[in-house]
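Dear colleague,

As promised, here are the two records you asked about, laid out in our usual form so they can be pasted straight into your sheet.

NAME FIELD: protein one
SEQUENCE, THEN STRUCTURE:
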Amino acid sequence: MNSLSEETKKSNKKTLLKGMLRGELRDFFLSIGEKEYRADQAFNWMYNYRVENFSEMLNMSKELRVKLNDIALLNTLSLREKQVSAIDGAVKLLLETSGGNLIESVILPEKTRVTLCVSTQVGCPLDCKFCATGLMGYKRNLSSGEIFDQYALAQRLYDRPITNIVFMGMGEPLLNFEQTVKTLMIFADELNKGISHKKITVSTAGIPHKIIDLADTGLKSKLAFSLHSCFEEEREVIMPINKKYSLKENLEAIEYFARKTDTWITFEYVMLRGINDREKDIKALTKLCRRIKSKVNIIPFNSLEHMNPEGISAELIPTSREKIEKFADKLRENNISVFLRNTQGEDIDAACGQLAIKY
C-alpha cells in the first residue's frame, strides 16, 4: 500500500504542504530559496489557524504568497455533502479528495465535549462483518494532509470547538501507519495549539506489531481496540483479520502498549445478539479487564439491513437495549469501568461508510 496517494502527489504537479512536519516544511522553504523560519509561519497558519489559501498567511510577503500559490497546494479535501441529525445534533460530512474518492467524518457533540471521528483510508480492507465500510472494499490510504484536513474542515463548519479526535472512521489506521503517526506528530508538535495528542484515540482492529511500533513512537495518544469478542472462534467469524492476527497476539501487544505508555486501553464492543452478549462473554470481559488496565466502550449495533448485505453481515441482529443495559450493569458489578455509548446520527446514516456507499 502506498502511504501517500499518487493522486495527491501528482495534483497539478504542485507540492502539497498540508500534512508536512515542521522539519519537512523547513526543507521545502530552503529548497525554494526562502529562510527556514518560514516553516514555523506556515505550520502556524495551516495547523492552528487552518487557513484555506496562501493569501491568508498575512505575515508573509505578497510576493511569497503568490509564489507559494504557484508551486504548492494547501487543501486536500472538499465538502460534498453535510447531514445534521435532527435527533442528537450529530453531523456527518461526506468529503471528496482531489482524485474524486469519497470519505466520511462524523462530529459527535456531547454536553462537555465534541468528538470528531476521522477516516484514515478510502474504504477498508478488513471486511469486519458489522461495519458498512467493509462493503466498499479498499481503494487507498489517505495522506497525513487528508487526515488533518478532516479536522480543519470540520472545525470550520462547526460552531463549537472540537475537543477530541478518534481515528475510528473509514479504514484501519495501523495499516496506514506512517501517515497516521505523521498526523499524530503534527498534533503533538509544541507549536500546535489545537487538540492535545492526549485527547486523540487511535482505534485498531488488531495489527499487533504495529501496536508495538505505535507504543515505541513515544506519542501519548490513546489506544482503542476493536475487541467485540473475547473468544478466538467468534471473533474470526465477525472479524476475518483475527485469522491472520490472533486475539492472543493482539492482547500481548496491547499489554506492552499499556505498560509503555502508561495509559488505559479502551475495548470497543459492538453488541450482537447471540454472538457476544451472553453470560460467558461477561465473565471473559471481566477477566480481561482485570488483566489489562482498561475500560469497555459498549456500542449498540447499527443494523446494515437497509444496505442489503450478504453472508454473515445479513444475519447480524442488534442486542436489545434492555439486554445491553443489563450486560453493562453486570460488568460494573464486577468493578469494570463501562461506558455505554448512545447511538448517534441514526437518522443520517452515521454508521461508518453508509453515506459514501450511497454515492
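NAME FIELD: protein two
SEQUENCE, THEN STRUCTURE:
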Amino acid sequence: MKAAIVLVAAMLASVAPVPAIAQAYWAAPAADDFAYDINAVQAPWSKADIDVSHHDRIYVSDPTSTKIVVIDPAAGNELGRIDLSKSGMAEPSFSSPNVQRLAAARDGRTVATLATRSVTLLDLATNTERGRTVFETSPTAVAFTPNGHELWVSLGDEYAIAVVDPKTAREITRVPASGGAGATILSPDGRYAFVSLTAQPSVLVVDVAHRRVVGHVASTGAGAGAIAVSPDGKQIWATRRDSGTTTVFAAKPPFAVREVINTGPATSAVNFAQRADDSFAYVGVGGDQPGIKVYRTDSLEAVTTVPLQAAPTAVWPSGDGTRIYASLAGTNKVAAIDTLTYTTASTIPISTDAQSLIYVPGAVRSGKGLANLVPSGRDAALALAAR
C-alpha cells in the first residue's frame, strides 16, 4: 500500500503545473451514440457528403452578452441559447460580456468560444461548459488543430499564440508573434499554423510540431481581417478590412503569393463551399453595398456578388456545401445563401446581434439536442427584428 501511495505521489508531482498566465477548469465530455465520420467536414477539412439535417447546428456568438445562440439549420429557427454566465465551473464567472470568436473541433464534439480574458470549451452533447482557460488579456482568435489535440489561441496584446490542451484546458506553451496575433487557421494536415498579424502587413507561418516561425507572407495592409484554408488544403485566403483586399497564397513552402484581389470595402469574413469537383471562396464585404463576393478557387475568377441586408460578420458552409450561412451585423439575422443559385434562400431571425458564426454537421448525436438550452424569450426580439 505504501509503495502504491508513493507511486501516485510521484506521478502527481510529475504533472506540470498550470502556467501562472492561465487558470483552467475542466469536466469530462458526455458520451454519445451518433455515428459520425470525422473526415466529413466541409470546412476547413472537407468532404461534401453530409446532408443538412436536424442533427446539425449553427452557433452564433453575441458580442454584447454571455450567450451563444443555437440554430437548427434544417428547421431554420433558433432553439435557444447557451448562457456562459450560468456555468457550473469554478470562478472566475462570466460576468464580463463580449462573447466573440468561435471554433469547432473536427469531430464535432466541442466548440471553443472566446470572451473577455478567456477561452471556454463547450460540450455539444450537453450544451454545457466543460473547460475554461483564463488569460491576462482578451484573446483575438482561436483554432483547433485537425486532430483536436491542441487549441491555438491568439493573444494580440501579448504578442503571442497560446497553445492549449483541450482535454484539460491547460496552457501547454506559447509561440511569439511580435506583429500582434490575429485570425488563425491550421493546415488540414496539421503541419502549419497561419496567423494574420494585426500590427504588420504579414501572415505568420508556424511549424506546429516544432513551435517555431518558418515564414512570413506579405499581405496588403495590416489591421483586422480573417483567414481560411481552401477545402483541398492548397490555398490560404487572408482578408484585410482596411485595405479591402484578400491575399491568396500557397499553403505549402515556399508559401508563394498567387494574387492579391481587391475584394472591396470593409472586406471581412472568408470561407469556402465545395460543390462536386468545384470549390468557391465566399468573401464578405461592407460599405454602401454589403454582400458576399464569390470566386472560383482554381482560376480566382470572380463569379458573382450576393447582395445582403448588412455586412456579414462571419460566413460558414453547411456540411454538404449547398448553403453558406452569414451573420448580418446589427440586424439580429442570419442569411442562408443557396450556393447553386447564389441567392438568399432564407433569413433566420435570432434573439441577439451576431459576431461570429460556425456550422457544425452532426453536432447532435442523440436526442433532440435541447438539453440545458436557455429559452431565448425571443418572441418580442424577433418581432422587433422583423419590423
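A couple of things worth noting about protein two: DSSP finds two helices and 29 strands in the chain. The chain has one domain: 21-29+36-385.

Best,
R.
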